[in-house]
Design brief:
Layout lengths: L3 E6 L9 H12 L10 E5 L13 H13 L3 E6 L11 H10 L4 H4 L3 E3 L8 E5 L7 E5 H4 L3 E7 L1 E3 L3 E3 L1 H9 L2 H8 L4 E3 L9 H5 L5 E3 L5 E3 L9 H5 L5 E3 L4 H15 L4 E7 L21 E5 L2 H14 L16 H5 L6 H9 L7 E5 L2
Parallel strand pairs: 1-16, 2-3, 2-7, 3-4, 7-14
Antiparallel strand pairs: 1-15, 5-6, 8-9, 10-13, 11-12, 14-15
Helix pairs in contact: 6-10, 7-10, 10-13
């Protein structure tokens, strides 16, 4: 089997070679400039970061990629789809405001921001894929309508998938609200009554009116209304709202949605192994990184780039003051989230032909 090429730059710089210079050099070496951008609508898929979270990709990196696309006469736009959970990116107005607050605007990045699934998360196209879980995928309209997709992915831990990288940003991130519901539907949380204090945070933050306090002042989940978005898990301060760790189908659905995003169109992917926090950028805060900053990867293969990213993290010396602590495990994400297996999504993505876990690392000086 031929190995996919994954290109890598470290973070060493000089007065004459900035990290943005190195990024451009790597992207040229990796073949991004060989894509036909001329007069094409180019969706630059990124996570704008929940306000309060500072681990998201800096707008400077997005601006450098946008500039390269425009030099090839492409028509780029930065984009993400609305969230399923209740937060500051759950509708088009708040989402745009959040993007602007975090520095993503035409003045800083050189292109406009488009919320891909519209004001209420209902603008989508169904892409026929005929996969194990999903016959069609509800992909946000602006992304589905793009001629080319470039993904800019902050690589970090994730409470449901083990890690979040290219596949997560493409799959979950490109799904409309209804698509996100479909992907989350088998991962509903539970309440540990021994830990619940009746603080009401889960109740006030549930966008679907699925959580209520019972007569015993303990939170109860009404599963007929629960969509499995995980917001109660994210806001609970007492470890009472917990994930039911049956996330295999969710990881596989994410891979299938990622398959739909790049189906029949050119795509290219960039993973930023910086501020590798234990949790998703959807949290309104970010914990300290679990390992030191590593570098930036680029590839046309979304599976290979995520596998290479995991391998680099696992080879890195952990930061003992982080959530990883003083554990001796060489598998960082399994140590942080022992009830989930991050390999499941990669295996399924490879099985359905999205890419290969076999890769050759090419370091660009």
């Amino acid at each position: 089997m031929n190995k996919s090429k994954v290109y890598f730059i470290n973070l060493r710089t000089t007065n004459h070679l900035t990290i943005l210079d190195k990024l451009k050099k790597m992207l040229i070496s990796a073949g991004m400039n060989e894509l036909d951008f001329k007069k094409k609508l180019v969706a630059v898929k990124i996570h704008f970061g929940e306000p309060g979270n500072l681990a998201y990709i800096r707008p400077n990196y997005a601006a450098a990629v946008v500039k390269m696309i425009k030099e090839k006469e492409g028509l780029p736009f930065l984009t993400d789809a609305n969230t399923l959970y209740k937060g500051k990116r759950s509708n088009g107005v708040d989402h745009l405001q959040s993007a602007m607050e975090n520095g993503f605007n035409p003045m800083t990045t050189g292109c406009h921001v488009v919320i891909a699934d519209g004001m209420k998360g209902t603008d989508y196209k169904e892409i026929l894929i005929n996969q194990k879980h999903c016959k069609t995928a509800k992909i946000a309209s602006a992304i589905a309508s793009a001629d080319v997709v470039i993904s800019l992915n902050h690589f970090k831990g994730h409470e449901f998938a083990g890690f979040g990288g290219c596949l997560k940003n493409l799959g979950m991130g490109s799904g409309s609200v209804g698509g996100k519901l479909e992907m989350h539907s088998d991962s509903k949380p539970l309440i540990d009554s021994d830990h619940c204090t009746g603080c009401n945070l889960c109740v006030s933050n549930c966008a679907h009116d699925a959580v209520h306090l019972g007569a015993d002042n303990i939170a109860k989940i009404e599963y007929s209304k629960c969509v499995g978005c995980g917001q109660c898990v994210a806001v609970c301060r007492y470890d009472a709202a917990q994930v039911q760790w049956d996330a295999k189908s969710m990881q596989e659905k994410i891979a299938e949605y990622a398959f739909a995003v790049v189906k029949d169109k050119p795509a290219f992917h960039i993973n930023f192994l910086l501020d590798i926090s234990p949790n998703c950028d959807c949290f309104p805060n970010n914990d300290m990184p679990i390992v030191p900053n590593i570098g930036i990867l680029a590839s046309s293969d979304p599976v290979a780039i995520d596998k290479a990213s995991v391998d680099l993290v696992n080879k890195s010396v952990p930061l003992e003051a982080s959530a990883f602590g003083k554990q001796k495990s060489d598998d960082k994400f399994s140590a942080i989230y022992p009830h989930t297996d991050w390999r499941l999504g990669l295996h399924h993505a490879e099985k359905i032909g999205l890419g290969s876990q076999q890769y050759e690392m090419v370091e660009v000086e």
